[in-house]
Amino acid sequence: MMRALALIVALVMMALPAPAQEGLRCAPHAALVGVMQQAGMVIVASPLVDMRTGSFGQAEVWVSPDGLWVLIAVGPDGLACAAMSGVGWHLGEAA
Predict the structure, then answer these.
(1) For residue 93, what is the enclosing H or E element?
(2) Residue 37 near residue 15 (C-beta atoms within 8 A)
(3) Fewer CB within 10 A of the end CB, N or C, for the chain?
(4) 33-42, long-range: CB within 8 Å, 24+ apart, which pairs?
(5) Does residue 7 carry a pLDDT above 50?
(6) How far is CA 90 from CA 5, 27, 63, 66, 69, in A?
(7) What is the bridge-based pairing of β-strands 56-63 and 69-74?
(8) Residue 88 phi/psi, 5° resolution?
(9) According to the model, what pLDDT value does residue 81 have?
(10) Which pLDDT belongs to residue 60?
(11) Which residues make Cβ contacts (< 8 Å) with residue 73, sequence separation at least 6?
């Protein structure tokens, strides 16, 4: 499972341009969505978030069938950044 997570994160990172901020890889939202969909991931959550700049953006959680997940932050300008990833998300199960 860890190899699969490393592969998905590597694919996401390779598809994105150089970091816009330390530790983040960013791209237009549509480009990042395409990478996630090509990796077989689906969006499971998309809450509205306060960007602390007087505007709002989205946080999106993308999950693969085997429980790997990636959280991306989408700004009001449409720029999306892969912020974190992990394992153990169980699709279709109650919390």
Answers:
(1) none
(2) no
(3) C
(4) 33/80, 35/11, 36/12, 36/62, 36/70, 36/72, 38/11, 39/8, 39/11, 39/12, 39/64, 40/64, 40/65, 41/8, 41/68, 41/70, 42/91
(5) yes
(6) 14, 27, 9, 8, 10
(7) antiparallel
(8) 95, 15
(9) 87
(10) 92
(11) 49, 57, 58, 59, 60, 80, 81, 83
Which residue carries 């069938």 as its tokens? 65
**Per residue in 34-82, pLDDT tens?**
888 988 999 998 888 776 777 778 889 999 988 888 889 898 888 998 8
Cβ neighbours for 52, distance < 8 A, ≥ 6 positions apart: none
In three-state secondary structure terms, 73 is strand
Letter string b/e over residues 4-20, b meaning 16 or more CB atoms within 10 A of that residue's CB = ebeebbeebeebbeeee
**Which two structure tokens, joined as six digits, stand for 34?**
């395409």
Token pair for residue 81? 């950044």
The one-letter amino acid code at 2 reads: M
